[in-house]
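Review form for a predicted model. The reviewer records the input and the model, then writes brief findings.
Reviewer: anonymous (R2)
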Amino acid sequence: MSRVGFDLLHADASGEFAAAMSLGAAVRIAEALLFAAREPLSQEAIAAALPAGAAVAEVLEHLEAHYAARGVNLIRVAGGWTFRTAPDLGFLMRRDVEEPRKLSRAAIETLAIVAYHQPVTRAEIEEIRGVATAKGTLDVLLESGWVRMRGRRRTPGRPITFGTTEAFLSHFGLGSVGDLPGLDELSAAGLFDGRLPRGLAVPLPTDDPALLADEDPLEADPIELARQERIDAGEPGLDAGAAADTSRTDGER
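Model under review:
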């Protein structure tokens, strides 16, 4: 082999070695960040900590593959990346985790409506459910951190609009509300009995934090807004000067 050929081969090998070393360093940095983070990290946040020129998508792909068969997996939730216990080992954690309070059927139905129809008002929730929403239902969902107040609808009375939060996505392991099951998945899970009406469709949800054209921003603190929402709903014993009543019915606990 000529000296020139040897030099070219050596240069190629050196370049490949440097690239491998650079990728390895970037993977270690991303791994450390993800293990230390209390919340899912966005791809942009991870990229900002990596060496210049590092391909964050390649780094995450490498980590995802590396942890696929291990006790923890790297998954994408709430628009970010985080480590979670492997699904088949989840039973080992149950004895160490405090069982969360179970939601009532009314709260579960309300949460589903908010998730699929957001932004949605209380009146719209009641119209879809076909029954009045008890005063504690939305309180429970707000306290859980799964539902938030988005804004006010530009209609008479300016009712408050509700949407889901990143905590909702994180709890249910969703990258976005677009990952919620559609009609085919719901049918396959046996959640629909008998023949479905012609033209039935599941809404295509969106959790875009930006207000829609028919929404105004909130102008008061959340406690005051919650009280005003209950006043708007005509609950007895509440008026503009009354203190907020945060009690819940037994059926909503």
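Findings: Residues 3-74 form one domain.
Further findings: The CA atoms of residues 139 and 226 lie 8 Å apart.
Recommendation: see findings above.
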